[in-house]
Amino acid sequence: MKKNEKVVEAFELAPAGIVSQVYPYKSNEEVVGMNMLELAERKTETKLAKKSGKYTIAGPYELKQGGKGVLLFDPIYVDDGPEKKFWGFSILVLNWNNFLQEANVKKLNDASYHYNVWKENKDGEKSIIMSCAHKNLKDTLSVSYTVPNDLWHFEIVPFDGWIPMYYKLGGFVLCVLITYLITVVYWQSKTKRLKEEMYAKKIAESAKKAQEANEAKTKFLFNMSHDIRTPMNAIIGYSNLLEDNLDDKDKALNYISKIKSSNSVLLSLINYILEMATIEGSKMSLKEENEDLNDLIDSIIDVARPHIQKKHLHFTYEPHFQQAKIICDKTRFREVILNILINAIKYTPEGGSVYFKVDEYEKQQEDHVTYCFTIEDTGIGMKKDYLPHIFEVFSRERTSTESKVPGVGLGLPIVKSIVDMMKGTIHVESELNIGTTFKVDLTFPIYNAVTAIENKEEKNILNFKGKHILLVEDNELNAEIGMEILKTFDLDIDLASNGKECLTVLENKPEKYYDVILMDVQMPVMNGYEATKAIRQLNNGNATIPIIAMTANAFEEDRQVAFKAGMNEHIAKPIDVEKLFAVLSKYLNQ
Fold first, then answer.
1. Domain limits, the chain
2. Between the chain's N and C termini, which has fewer beta carbons within 10 Å?
3. Are 565 and 557 in contact (CB under 8 A)?
């Protein structure tokens, strides 16, 4: 038996009977959109397949994509509660001529036999499936055999008729053998169909995932558009009101406070989106820093306290741990706990309760400590059927319009990703209108407290007077904001509008005149990376001036590119004044 690779012409998927996918697509694209349940030549067999739930053969037909073929309809049913629901068909298309050639049926002519294969149509009449050129055969030997959901009849007679009895017996054997050959070809085709079906299943799964991803992104864009426009509307509105009430100090301060609050919401939304992109690009890494858990928790509660007081919530914190000296990425750790804590506050109505507890497990690893962080609230809670989706990207049980809480559904996916990176676990329990409980288990190395500085030194009041800063910024508005911020630090500031101008300014000043250079990245003429590389190649003291990237390129890979170019620090825009002050203190206090 030859390989039947050319017998299988195509494999099709037809949800609700309408062909939506075909493999291979090339040369078969015309069949996409055909409704098999309505097409005159197909509907009898397809409706039989749908009704019986059995694999059904149909044809041969003239195919829409050209040539003649047989269609094998496999009805697919899916679970729909207690009953099965019709989904559609998987369809195997066989090339009829290749099928006959594979079965060697036409070689009956070479052996001096006439043949005829037929079946009954829906009207009970004989419908010829295949035959030799000779019509109206008489005294035929007939064998009936079952094909998927149908009955075919095979007739055979020698050219010269049946003479000796053994000849007729031999013809019967030959007829059975031909039937067997056709059956074998059918089963070979069905085996290949199963392989194609597995491939189609993967296609369908990929299509489903793509559809779900598109739906999630559409929902995300809808939510993001709303949630970003909300603080933007407040910023624009209060800016206009501020302009009209500059003489009323109390009103002006109130409007400024609300603008700052809206700025914070808008920035947090943007940061979430950027951070999720970093995580999905597998570019996030964890730092190893010596920390005190008590200090970390205190800093988290300090951030959350104004929100707690604003909603008049009952807040309880219970520390149950002895070991506090740990090695961790404090930024990521704070992000995990603070995100969950702020969510608990946001979704708890006024007068409700938020409970925060830290337990230390018995030592499981030498030089390591494991904690359980529990955050429990009496908030609005969640439905049970939503909990499996709580860590999915862009997932929200309620939009911000319904819950009155801004967000695009990225906070908890980020939390889950960081916890996974820390090789920890996170578990959530919730009941609608009762509240929610999060439990996060994290393990950290213990650092040697003896070699650590136990007592915090009180920071000296820094004096930047007389220090020179070169600000390199091409955007006039950003330059103006930067200059005004730096003036509050009592610094002497010069401005350059691009990298080339920065080099010119340095050339016209004494060596090491500037104590720090604040460098934008994306600029005309010469960008910040090129300017930094050029400065580092100078043969004078300017080559060692600390250069701080101050840019809207906020991804982790942007930080790495900045460091690779020779920059000392990276500060993302919009500028956090406290962070800028801390970084300047590091270099101006040396």
1. 8-98, 106-163, 219-280, 289-445, 468-588
2. C
3. no
